[in-house]
Amino acid sequence: MTHQSQAEREAQLGAILERCNDLRLSPVPKEGSLPEGYTGTLGHFPVYFPEEIAHACGLLPVNILGGGNKLEMKHADAHMGSFICSICRSTAEMGLNGSLSGLTGFVTHPICDAAKHLGGIWARNFPEQLAQILYLPQNPNTPGAVSYVAAEYQRLRGEFEKKAGHTVDDAALSRSIRIYNRNRQLLRELYAIRRDEPWKLSCTEGYLLLRARTRIPCEEHNALLEAALPLIRARDRAAQDKPRVVFVGGFCEQPPLEMLEAIDDACYVVEDDLLIGLRWITSDVPETGDPIRALAESFVDRSAASPVQHDERKSKEGYLMEMIESSRAEAAIVTAAKFCEPGLDEQVAWSKHLDEVGIQYLVLEFEEKMTSFEQMAMQLETFAESLLFSIA
Ligand code: SF4
Q1: 88 within ligand 1 shell (Cβ under 6 A)
Q2: Residue of 44, 89, 107, 112 to test ligand 1 pocket, by largest number of atoms within 8 Å of CB
Q3: Which position among 31, 61, 131, 190 has the lowest Cβ density within 10 Å, counted as fewest Cβ atoms?
């Protein structure tokens, strides 16, 4: 890479980012277009899902993240009330309009009433697919939590094996864990750049690089990140006068890309919870011993936080403050998806706490089908200016 010019490196990185954006917009792969070594696809709903188990069974894990702002709603309204969040409604729509007919299975979680009912809608309308609810403990602070999670993972493993038509041994699971450990390491490096040199990688670019994993095998995503990271580090970009902020509220329904771009124009986002389920395990999962137990222990003891889990070790205020302090942020952008009960609850607690400790913040609401961002851009600009003025 050393003999490449800056323009050549930027073009190479641009091509990688373009591919990531194409993947964001691409449908779930169907039979005939599956990557080599995979016999089906396992769709999973946010927040966290142990992809390693599906991966080891030869089922490509694909994160189902709703339909974005281009999807026309024709069928879902007959199945769900209008007060349900966009991601649930558009996911149901994509099921009903056939966009997700290639899925071998779909796993959702009881993170909220809306997501829990999605499992039932799936089972009733798409009997050919394996519809499952993964019951992760809302409170992992009990002595039996690890054994309980391990039993739930073992149950899912059995269901996936039946669907895939073969059993999967522990060695295959440990191999998948190794591949995902490499991915976790690369994602930590990606976020370290955002924290230490945010002018080299915008929040939108980082998000596209992360989100690419929702459509391709983890090993391919590792290669993509291994190619992108040196190009990002070598970027010759000057730091601008922008405030450092933390973005929260992107743990389940995804904010439109245009919203992230508007935030990037005004601020450096040095930490966020976008697609936190893909970064849920915060350090390596043990690669030896019982792999299911190792995954379960990691879920309980080496994990991030989100509004849908109630872990006494991670208070709502505590984990936001940890994000702010560890990323040396000056302020926070506190968002929630429209009609998202867990997100709106957290937003109230966060705002109250930030008022108490005197950290500035901006409250924003979003939904998938938003198409106008001018007003939000003005709010962001005013927020950034007031921050720069107050910290000058
Ligand atoms: S966006 Fe909120 S309400 Fe909707 S499924 Fe996710 S957690 Fe539930």
Answers
A1: yes
A2: 112
A3: 31
Distance CA 71, CA 93 (A): 9
Residue nearest to atom 6 of ligand 1 (CA): 252
CA-CA-CA-CA dihedral for 368, 373, 378, 382, to nearest 10? 30
pTM of the entire predicted model: 0.96
Q: Using the mean position of ligand 1's atoms as its centre, give its distance from the Cα of residue 391 in Å.
A: 35
Q: What is the DSSP string of 185-253?
A: HHHHHHHHHHHH-GGGS-HHHHHHHHHGGGTS-HHHHHHHHHHHHHHHHT------S--EEEEE--SSS
Across the chain, where does the E strand assignment appear? 40-44, 59-63, 105-108, 130-133, 244-248, 268-272, 331-337, 360-366
Say how far apart CA 45 and CA 134 lie, in whole Å. Answer: 10
Report the Cα–Cα distance between both ends of the chain, in Å, rounded: 39
Contact 343, 225 (CB under 8 A): no
The residue type at 330: E
Amino acid at 26: S
Q: Determine the Cα–Cα distance for residues 95 and 30; give it in Å rounded to an integer.
A: 14
Ligand 1: atom nearest CA of 307 is: 7
**φ and ψ of 38, to 5 deg:** -110, 140
91 and 66 Cβ atoms separated by less than 8 Å: yes
- Please state, in angstroms and rounded to a whole number, the distance separating the CA atoms of residues 376 and 378: 5
**Ligand 1 pocket, residue 111 CB under 6 Å:** yes
Mean pLDDT in consecutive groups of 10 residues from the start of the chain, 392 residues: 84 97 93 92 96 97 90 84 90 93 94 89 93 90 93 97 94 98 98 98 98 97 98 94 96 96 97 97 96 97 90 89 96 96 94 96 94 94 92 66
